[in-house]
TrEMBL record:
Family the entry assigns: Belongs to the glucose-6-phosphate dehydrogenase family.
Bilayer-crossing regions: none
Name this polypeptide is given: Glucose-6-phosphate 1-dehydrogenase
Record-linked Pfam families: G6PD_C, G6PD_N
Domain annotation Glucose-6-phosphate dehydrogenase NAD-binding: ranges: 34-219
Function: Catalyzes the rate-limiting step of the oxidative pentose-phosphate pathway, which represents a route for the dissimilation of carbohydrates besides glycolysis.
The keyword Lipid biosynthesis is annotated on this UniProt entry: no
Catalysed reactions listed for this entry: D-glucose 6-phosphate + NADP(+) = 6-phospho-D-glucono-1,5-lactone + NADPH + H(+)
EC number(s) on file: 1.1.1.49
Domain of life of the native organism: Eukaryota
Length: 508
């Protein structure tokens, strides 16, 4: 996960628009946000900094306090020390990039930490949760948000204890935020879902897939359903293929153990990329209500058959002898990859997904999703390629297919590759772009980070950008047979060199 420091606060126009939307019943009520696993990596790099940005930008309900909870005997000063480096801005001083709290924000930072408390306790003893509850009760009647920044192994005992002694009372609500992985396959995920369903209502559970908080992922619905030009051509008669890809310019970075256990399918495909696919393929929802949107996403997933091995290409990066530093090392050279299981490698995967929904049936390789580590660039994008112009009157090969590209990261952009006359005396055609690059169209505008949007959504009770349990079920149904097959048969992956543009699929 990226934990790069932000350059500045969210743009003022964006802020005022967000603030206008934030008028909800109970905004004046007291809120307590509890971070379970407050001593951990996610809390330090993402949750505390995100709460700080929201606090600093005045987006949280006024009476909000924060309580960190974990087993470690820590003080708030310890937590502050750990997380402060991730709360700073990048500033340029004497041509040097430096990290610092923005001038004028020092007092606000102090106020933020004053609104924070820390409680140490176990994850399985009810008396410790009663202690946490006492601390929450000191804030008076409050709405309660619990963020489980914890390993999945303790989800069960923690949620049981929350339900037993930490729920809000009277007219106040309780919401629980959980992070992926939501299980390891269909069976474990269903078990977790059943457990959560036995304790909480679906509207109390917020499953975070941070891709749903990204600007361009959220833009997909607007592009598709607020533009007349796209709706008549968004079907099998006009679309040749949809390609969703994710590339990183680095390898496992010492997280080989994690990759070997969870793999890239679970880490990126089954969640982030499949979410993008459903937004690209779904029918227009009846409204922008969370349930209407999620109903349409589930319908797409139900039309996808479990992925067959014959539609999959597995790859594994090898060191580049001409590269520098980490580039010289392949996946197998990472000492954190367990040597006993060296063959189960999912550093790259390329999958063709077939959707049997009538809008797309027979669209040749409707969707291809691929994930690469250790390539030459960092990129996540969607490419929708349209079919050839019928009855082409131009010389053979002169006209290229139209392509709509939605770049999720880096440098958010939407552009349409299209043909135009070459300027000047010539009557030749050439390919060009209708280009909406956010960097130039919305110059200087700072977009909120995905976690900021999502945590704010939880405060304000919007589940549009969270994963519902039936979506999760379908996503695992699609990928589980493939995962089990890879794990049992250990197919040999195709090697590709660190830092190259991709791999040759025909190479054995
Ligand atoms: N880090 C990320 O960038 C990231 C990104 C996406 C999703 N996630 C998910 O978010 C959750 C938290 O991630 P994290 O990286 O913050 O995890 P972490 O640092 O390994 O764990 C968080 C805290 O949980 C406690 N803990 C760790 N291992 C434990 C164990 N075996 N049994 C009981 N308690 C244990 C520790 O606190 P105490 O010992 O003080 O109790 C630790 O500080 C995980 O589910 C992870 O998969 C993380």
């Amino acid at each position: 996960m990226s934990s790069r420091p932000r350059h500045d606060s969210v743009d003022k126009t964006v802020l005022s628009l967000i603030k206008e939307d934030l008028d909800f019943d109970g905004v004046g009520a007291s809120h307590v946000f509890v971070i379970l696993g407050a001593s951990g990596d996610l809390a330090k790099k993402k949750i505390y900094p995100t709460l700080w940005w929201l606090y600093k930008d005045g987006l949280l309900p006024a009476k909000t306090t924060f309580i960190g909870y974990a087993r470690s005997k820590l003080t708030m000063e310890d937590i502050k020390k750990k997380t402060l480096p991730y709360m700073k801005h990048l500033e340029i001083k004497h041509s040097l990039l430096i990290l610092k709290v923005k001038e004028g924000d020092e007092q606000k930072v102090e106020a933020f930490f004053k609104a924070n408390e820390y409680v140490a306790g176990s994850y399985d003893q009810t008396k410790d949760f009663s202690n946490l509850n006492k601390q929450i009760e000191q804030k008076g009647d409050s709405n309660r948000l619990f963020y489980l920044a914890l390993p999945p192994s303790v989800f069960e005992t923690v949620t049981l204890n929350l339900k037993a002694v930490c729920m809000a009372k009277g007219d106040k609500w309780t919401r629980v935020i959980i992070e992926k992985p939501f299980g390891k396959d269909l069976e474990s995920s269903t078990k977790l879902s059943s457990h959560l369903e036995s304790l909480f209502k679906e509207e109390q559970i917020y499953r975070i897939d941070h891709y749903l908080g990204k600007e361009m992922v959220q833009n997909l619905m607007v592009l598709r359903f607020a533009n007349k030009i796209f709706s008549p051509i968004w079907n099998r008669e006009n679309i040749a293929s949809v390609v969703i890809s994710f590339k990183e310019p680095f390898g496992t970075q010492g997280r080989g153990g994690y990759f070997d256990e969870f793999g890239i399918i679970r880490d990126v495909m089954q969640n982030h990329l499949l979410q993008i696919l459903t937004l690209v393929a779904m029918e227009k929802p009846a409204s922008t209500n969370a349930e209407d949107i999620r109903n349409e996403k589930v319908k797409v997933l139900k039309c996808i058959q479990p992925i067959e091995m014959e539609n999959v290409v597995l790859g594994q990066y090898v060191g580049n002898p001409e590269g520098e530093g980490e580039e010289k090392e392949g996946y197998l050279d990472d000492p954190t990859v367990p040597k006993v299981k060296l063959i189960v490698l999912l550093s790259t995967i390329d999958i063709v997904i077939l959707i049997s929904q009538c809008r797309y049936v027979h669209v040749c390789s409707f969707s291809n999703i691929s994930v690469f580590l250790a390539l030459n660039e960092r990129k996540a994008e969607v490419r929708i390629q349209f079919k050839d112009v019928a009855g082409d009157i131009f010389p053979d090969g002169a006209v290229k297919r139209n392509e709509l590209v939605i770049r999720v990261q880096p440098n958010e952009a939407v552009y349409l590759k299209m043909m135009t006359k070459s300027p000047g005396m010539s009557f030749n055609s050439e390919e060009t772009e209708l280009d909406l690059s956010y960097g130039s169209r919305y110059k200087g505008m700072k977009l909120p980070d995905a976690y900021e949007r999502l945590i704010l959504d939880v405060f304000y009770g919007s589940q549009i950008h969270f994963v519902r349990s039936d979506e999760l079920y379908e996503a695992w149904r699609i990928f589980t047979p493939l995962l089990h097959k890879i794990e049992s048969e250990k197919p040999k992956p195709i090697p590709y060199v660190y830092g190259r543009t991709g791999m040759d699929k025909n190479k054995e």
